[in-house]
Amino acid sequence: MNKQIEKAEKVANGQRPIKRDRFVKLAGKKPGVDWALVERARQLLGLKGYVSNISPEVLDGPAVVAAYHSLWQVEKSFRMAKSDIRARPMFHHQRDSIEAHLTVVICALAVARHLQEATGISIKKLVQTLRPLRTVIIDVNGHELTAAPAIDADTQKILDQISSHTGH
Hints:
elongated
């Protein structure tokens, strides 16, 4: 906070250009330090508040704080989604397209999290291991030939873990 006050004082003294400094106020044409805001910030120093639109009957205060503290997992999932699944940005302009895209992304994240919990393996490792597995059906003059992938023991163990968690 002291650094922010120093920046505001430098702006007020003309030693620093006006940027988006926290405690700077414009009184007329001359910038100054907003000392009332500085005092209010000092009174609130060390306090942290949480705001939720969920009623306390549904999610009480400690549960709101716990949910906030678990946000790192969601953020981690989105970082994983971009890099490990090789997701590219999508540019949608209509509400239906945006909502559909978000639905697909959230579903993919839910599946990825489920697979991680079922196997204990990172999604990056799962994608690297399972992506090459492809079954190919070849049609030669009306005769279908199926070429199944070669599955090593480690990959089969992963598939078995997934199957045991899905009930299939």
